[in-house]
């Protein structure tokens, strides 16, 4: 297999079952277990979303399989995909180790997140590269693909589909959103915020949406301030401005998971209902063929670039 290129598909990860929630959040909290109160709250969120049945991990599995299928169809025999998760097994390091065990000596890493930040994608890259260097694997990375034409096309289709049932006689506010990060990323000119605005602007323009704004969601609970305003605050502002119809477009996320299914579909929906507003959400990308092609084309382009500089 030494002539094949490994593709490490990285993601944040989710627990494999309700029983794995404590271990998962202990890893996120750098070895500090959540308090019983926090664990109960977190478990309650998952219970509200999945009802004790846990399909969230399957989203990532299907995305990795979908990417493998497109790569096989495009260049049969050239690429083999491996999964590496930030906070759950198989960890990023496990994915790289599995490559080495299979004789892979050249690899490309890509994250199931279109926008680069030193605190998100940058962290994935550092962990993967450290293990790759230890094992003698030459590894390059796709750091972002936030303006890939097929990604934009897929998001435009979702915005147009979701906005179609709204009453066109009344104003509609489209709220693009992504996972918040600590404000300190601005001190290092991190591209995360600007890339998200570029994606939102491109989607809005192509979808014919003129009335939109960007907001944040799912901020962590730390002492440091996080990017805002949060979508719950934005909904209040939009309501005060007279809007009764809102479409949530979480372009920073690529699959159904807790930050979408709970933070938007339950928490934000409850806030909108309290404000007497209609809130709808675009469908997530998951294994949309255009998204799978976005990933595959980004991997192949990085492979070609690597070959050219060697």
TrEMBL record:
Cellular localization per UniProt:
Cytoplasm
Q: State where it is primarily located.
A: cytoplasm
**What's a Gene Ontology MF term here?**
ferrochelatase activity
Which amino acid positions bind Fe(2+), per UniProt? 179, 259
Note the InterPro entries from the entry: Ferrochelatase, Ferrochelatase_AS, Ferrochelatase_C
Supply one GO CC term from the record.
cytoplasm
Q: What is its EC number?
A: 4.99.1.9
Q: Which keywords has UniProt assigned to this entry?
A: Cytoplasm, Heme biosynthesis, Iron, Lyase, Metal-binding, Porphyrin biosynthesis
Q: In which residues is Fe-coproporphyrin III bound?
A: 12, 29, 45-46, 124
Function in brief: Involved in coproporphyrin-dependent heme b biosynthesis. Catalyzes the insertion of ferrous iron into coproporphyrin III to form Fe-coproporphyrin III.
What is the name of the protein in this document?
Answer: Coproporphyrin III ferrochelatase
Which organism is this protein's natural source?
A: Paenibacillus baekrokdamisoli
Gene behind the chain: hemH
């Amino acid at each position: 297999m030494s002539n094949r290129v490994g593709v490490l598909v990285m993601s944040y990860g989710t627990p494999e079952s309700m029983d794995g929630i404590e271990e998962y959040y202990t890893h996120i909290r750098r070895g500090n277990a959540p308090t019983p109160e926090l664990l109960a709250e977190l478990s309650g969120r998952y219970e509200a979303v999945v009802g004790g049945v846990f399909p969230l991990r399957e989203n990532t599995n299907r995305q990795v399989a979908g990417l493998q299928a497109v790569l096989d169809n495009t260049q049969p025999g050239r690429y083999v995909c491996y999964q590496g998760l930030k906070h759950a097994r198989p960890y990023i390091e496990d994915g790289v180790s599995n490559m080495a065990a299979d004789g892979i000596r050249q690899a490309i890493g890509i994250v199931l997140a279109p926008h680069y930040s030193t605190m998100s994608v940058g962290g994935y890259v550092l962990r993967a590269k450290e293990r790759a260097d230890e094992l003698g694997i030459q590894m390059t990375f796709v750091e972002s693909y936030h303006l890939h034409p097929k990604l934009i096309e897929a998001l435009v289709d979702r915005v147009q589909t979701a906005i179609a049932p709204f009453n066109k006689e009344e104003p509609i506010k489209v709220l693009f959103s992504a996972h918040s990060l600590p404000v300190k990323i601005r001190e290092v000119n991190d591209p995360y915020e600007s890339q998200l605005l570029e994606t939102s602007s491109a989607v809005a323009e192509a979808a014919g949406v003129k009335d939109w704004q960007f907001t944040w969601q799912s901020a962590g609970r730390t002492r440091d301030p996080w990017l805002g305003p949060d979508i719950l605050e934005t909904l209040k502002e939009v309501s005060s401005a007279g809007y009764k119809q809102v479409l949530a477009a979480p372009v920073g996320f690529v699959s159904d998971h807790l930050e979408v299914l709970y933070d938007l579909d339950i928490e934000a929906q409850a806030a909108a209902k309290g404000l007497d507003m209609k809130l709808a959400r675009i469908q997530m990308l998951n294994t949309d063929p255009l998204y799978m092609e976005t990933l595959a084309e980004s991997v192949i382009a990085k492979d070609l670039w690597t070959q050219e500089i060697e």
